[in-house]
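Protein in question kept in full:
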Amino acid sequence: MPFTNKYSDMKNTTELKLTWAEQKGKLKQRFAILTDNDLMLNQDNKDVMLGKIQVKLGKTKEQIDKILESL
């Protein structure tokens, strides 16, 4: 999954959080229906978060991956 691969090379959690904060803002601008709760990211809920985004936007997993890659 591109989302995982893109972040697997990050050296520390702080860098990941900053990058995700930027991308979360871009997602909320592009898809106003998404809330902070939908985009809450931690290691334990990544799949849940991606599933919420997928359902809320009515997109396939592959489409969500492409959206995240494009940010």
Q: What stands out?
A: The CA atoms of residues 18 and 24 lie 10 Å apart.
